[in-house]
Amino acid sequence: MLQPYASPAEKIARFGLVSLSILILLFLIVPILVIIPLSFNSSSFLTYPMDGFSLRWYQELMTSQEWRQAFKNSFIIAPGSTVLAMIFGTMASVGLCRGDFKGKSIVMAFLISPMIVPLIIVAVGLYFFFAKLQLLNSYVGLVLAHAMLGVPFVVITVNATLQGFNTNLSRAAASLGAPPLTVFFKVVLPLIAPGVISGGLFAFATSFDEVVVTLFLASPSQRTLPLQMFAGIRENISPNIAAVATIMVILSVLMLLTLEVLRRRNEKMKVKQE
Cβ neighbours of residue 269 under 8 Å, at least 6 residues apart? Predict the structure, then answer.
């Protein structure tokens, strides 16, 4: 029989588990949160206690040509690569889910390999490959490289969404005379949209945070935000970096909230299909 109340040993075990979980959460979150107050420090050094409150470092970000160019480059490359990753990843996922052929698992492993292979190896390979195609030091090369890194995330999220997709809906649309493209855009795509968007957000975050591949392929005028931060840490540690880090943390939180909204929407749609 189940006991109506927890025993003292169970209470102690539960308290220990909760305490351990809180400590692990703090270990992961505190280093990220510590940098946020420093971005409002009036001092020129990243030190605690703070000398005072100031927005000077955010103002410098807006007036500095290097940082403005880095923001511009990131918001050119990341959205472009995200769109390509969403298109290619969705097409690959639909083909894998609908197709029944030998070597399917090998193709899937090949598609997600950029997540597994060390970035330094990917970067070196892309450097020599793009050199022959004359794509080095170009936005096109950076967008294609970042799109390749984002495709695995789209493939995984869309593939997970398609696993619960009711194929009778697309069959019903086809039986009513709808061509394949119409079935996809009018029936399939709206239902798998949460997975596509979720994968796109992961692809955007991957591109926006990428350093190693960009370091090999970009010219000095094409430094992205993370690459500019990396250069700033090497040359001169400035609170400007704390301000940029705070902005990136805020963007990450917004993406996490968006993913949660999409997850709940996806669950509601699964319930309706059932």
Answer: 191, 194
Q: Give the residue from 208, 202, 212, 203 showing the smallest Cα distance to 70.
A: 208
Neighbours of 67 (CB within 10 A): 21
CB neighbour burial string for 122-161, b if at least 16 within 10 angstroms, e if fewer: bbeebbeebeeeebbebeebbbbbbbbbbbbbbbbbbbeb
Q: Would the pTM of this model clear 0.85, i.e. be above it?
A: no
Distances from the Cα of 268 to the Cα of 191, 193, 263, angstroms: 11, 13, 9
CA separation, residue 72 to residues 96, 131, 235, 252 (Å)? 36, 24, 22, 18
- Which tokens go with 1? 């029989």
Distance CA 32, CA 190 (A): 36
CB 153 within 8 A of CB 93: no
**pLDDT higher than 70, residue 269:** no
Q: What is the pLDDT of residues 45-94, one digit of tens each?
A: 777 777 778 788 888 888 888 888 988 999 999 999 999 999 999 998 88
Picking from 123, 155, 156, 114, the residue whose alpha carbon sits closest to that of residue 142 is 123
User: What is 50-116 written as a DSSP string?
Assistant: -S-B--HHHHHHHH-HHHHHHHHHHHHHHHHHHHHHHHHHHHHHHHHHH---TTHHHHHHHHTHHHH
Q: What is the pLDDT of residues 104-139, one digit of tens each?
A: 888 888 888 888 888 899 999 999 999 999 888 889
Reduce the DSSP state of residue 41 to 3 states and report it: strand
**64 phi, psi to nearest 5 deg:** -75, 130
* CA-to-CA separations, 109 to 112, 148, 195, in angstroms, rounded: 5, 14, 19
- Tokens 């280093």 correspond to 31
Which residue, among 196, 218, 225, has the nearest Cα to 82 in the 3D structure? 196
